[in-house]
Amino acid sequence: xxxxxxxxxxxxxxxxxxxxxxxxxxxxxxxxxxxxxxxxxxxxxxxxxxxxxxxxxxxxxxxxxxxxxxxxxx
Length: 74
What we know:
mainly alpha, elongated, membrane, transmembrane, transmembrane helix
């Protein structure tokens, strides 16, 4: 019985840590993308290109998470 409880707690902790890390990664990428997008408005083409890469990474992460959640995609 105690082994089952430990297994459940370990699973919960794994999901919690993964969710927090992924949420932080998406928030960081998005905020960096916004900041670089604004900097690109001043004429920095490289900053604008990197911001697009940040936004694309956000989209990829969200689509991958949806693929993991929705069973019809498997």
